[in-house]
Design brief:
By secondary structure, this protein is mostly helical. It contains 9 helices and no strands.
Length: about 210
């Protein structure tokens, strides 16, 4: 029987294999054979570690969430506690372009969001991930209110509105990408944030590179 550490490593390899294929072909288009090839493993090992493709998807979602959380943390660390820059960085991490963007991860989140509409277990995991990031955004807003940088009577409602906007962009990008002019998602979301939070400095001007 494999050691626990080896099992975790193999499961992570497989999850990343699905992420690689899913970014290009979607969830339905990712065969177990392709996932095995991308992971550098045999299909037998795939079936040993996971009962079915949905289990791999759930593991892939956790890996995407960890990766995304790390990306956000790295961006926020560069803001030196400035709430305006932190909001801009948070938005950029989700819908921004440029050198720090991760098109592969974004493509996978679009796929995951679609699958969440069809599968209760995927939906539950997706909701947990979204709740985590919503709470993180709420804490940034609360810190800004305490410092007098933002004005809002309901930080949670403001955070939820911004997360809903981000998710809305994901949905439109997945179904009618041509409706979103290049480079406008982050700018428009920041402008919406300004209306919600009334910051002392523009989020657009304070955006991270």
């Amino acid at each position: 029987m494999p050691r626990p550490s080896n099992t975790r490593e193999r499961r992570l390899q497989i999850a990343r294999g699905l992420i690689q294929i899913m970014a290009d072909k979607g969830y339905d288009g990712a065969s177990m054979t392709e996932v095995a090839h991308a992971a550098g493993l045999t299909t037998g090992l795939i079936h040993y570690h996971f009962k079915n493709k949905r289990e791999i998807l759930l593991a892939a979602m956790q890996e995407l969430a960890v990766e995304h959380d790390g990306n956000i943390a790295e961006r926020l660390a560069q803001c030196l506690g400035d709430p305006v820059q932190e909001i801009a960085a948070f938005i950029d991490a989700h819908v921004g372009l440029g050198a720090h963007a991760n098109p592969r991860a974004l493509a996978c989140w679009l796929v995951v969001g679609t699958e969440a509409l069809k599968d209760a277990q995927v939906r539950e995991t997706y909701a947990q991930v979204m709740d985590h990031f919503n709470r993180r955004l709420t804490r940034i807003i609360e810190a800004g209110i305490r410092r007098g940088t933002f004005t809002s009577t309901s930080p949670r409602a403001a955070a939820s509105a911004l997360m809903a906007t981000i998710q809305g962009y994901y949905l439109v990008a997945a179904t009618a990408r041509h409706l979103i002019p290049d480079g406008t998602a982050a700018v428009c979301t920041k402008q919406m944030a300004e209306g919600l939070l009334k910051p002392t400095q523009s989020f657009v001007d304070g955006a991270t590179p």
